Amino acid sequence: MALTMDTLVSLCKRRGFIFQSSEIYGGIASSWDYGPLGVELKNKIKRVWWRDVVQQRADMVGLDASILMHPSVWKASGHVDHFTDPMVDCRDCRRRFRADKLEETPWEHYCPERKDNRFSIPAGAPCPHCGAPRSRCPECGKGELTPPRQFNLMFKTFMGPVEEDAALTYLRPETAQGIFVNFENVLQSMRRKLPFGIAQIGKAFRNEITPGNFIFRTHEFEQMEIEYFVNPHETVDGRPADEHWHERWIHDLLAWYQRYGIRAEHLRLREHERDELAHYAKRTADIEYEFPIGWSELAGIANRTDFDLKQHAKWSGKSLTYFDEERKEHVVPYVIEPSAGVDRALLAFMVDAYREEEVRGDKRVVLRLHPELAPVTVAVLPLLKKREAIVRVAHAIRDDLSRRWTASYDDTAAIGRLYRRQDEVGTPYCVTVDVQTVGDPDKGEAGDGRVTIRDRDSMEQIRVPVPELVSVISELMAGAEWARVAPRFASESPKP
Ligand code: GAP
User: Fold this and answer.
1) Is the CB of 134 under 6 A from ligand 1?
2) 313, containing H or E segment
3) 343 lines ligand 1 (CB under 6 A)
4) What is the CA radius of gyration of the chain?
5) Is 468 helix (H, G, I), strand (E, B) or coil?
6) Which of 198, 220, 103 is nearest to 154 (CA)?
7) Model pLDDT for residues 15-33, shown as the tens digit of each residue
8) Does the Cβ of 242 fall within 6 Å of ligand 1?
9) Which ligand 1 atom lies nearest to the CA of residue 223?
């Protein structure tokens, strides 16, 4: 059965991933708080992205610009004039809608041919009884809609104690502009040669008209953005450099999601139509994911040309060019921008990892998250919480493992239930300490100093000497398959 958003929202709350913001006050629309496991997952997504696209690439550097910027930034970038959505209001129920999305919204209809009958009609379809297309409010079915008016999505705020126009600024609606205004600083301080990129992870804010679908569209979210600067006068493999690098980044970003577990059949590329392109873009391709709400944007890769650097040069009066030593000329670089939402990535990783399986007649919910993303890497579980020696060893192992990975200790239920709980939050490995590990002095039995490692996906178990635990888990975390590691410990391990 396909995963619904409701099932996911409920799991996220129950297991400490995501809570509604300000819940004790009745909540606030479309704002979410990441709980103890959610923040681990989110941090790990950001960490692997940073490692893969910044630290491991010689052509990339990082940046962390401030959220509040000079208000001229947003005039130069075009956001003050163009970052708008067309909005309509219902004169009756006062609900607001994006005018350009109305035909994609299912609608309520009071059909004149079927008295007292209110029908819900799928998006874009006419009433099956009277044949009328939607003409009124899709929500209440009664109110007339106002003509569309442009609504700017930037959140306004004031810097300083006086709320006057001179103090007006905005919460950034994208992290990108912080990179453009630092182009010259990075170029000079880091002595970069084209092509090179600057990456940034940070919060962005948009006063969306129709936020919703859990963390898919919110007012406050995080972006992982790259601005990759290329020389427009160069060619690579016979193509203009910007077009070559655009293709490369589309390929690399698609591969990145798959590397961390998203199945290829749940990803697709969608080219923006000409009339849909942002004011700065020569070409944009979206990576779409098959969310429970249907195929929707996960990330976008745009060719922003030299628009932003030229605009900032014009508005600031500073030259934002690159000196091409070979051609002895100043050029304004073109920019390829792979831009991904952190929250949408988290949603996609969770949706793709979610499985309901039947194990010996019981339902098992398991998140098959990539081990590097799983909020808890190893859970250490004592088989008997009243045996002091077992508990002591389990705590010592957890402390040791937590120097390298996120490790947790849990003794609040019987072992079967503890395994199920860890499966549901995606913990790839559980380590169990039992009587065999520590021995039984009452019976004069010595411990064997081995612990059980249980693999989440196969549910197989191996018994490993405690001194080898770190090296075995390191091997698994480095990508070694369980099926290749397990046979080394077969003679000591429980039979499946
Ligand atoms: N700098 C380019 C830019 O911001 P965008 O397509 O508007 O492009 C990039 O946003 C990504 O940010 C999207 O693909 C999406 O993952 C994420 N995003 C945008 N608006 C969002 C919102 N309201 N809530 C959550 N994520 C959002």
Assistant:
1) no
2) helix 307-316
3) yes
4) 27
5) helix
6) 220
7) 999 999 999 999 998 999 9
8) no
9) 12
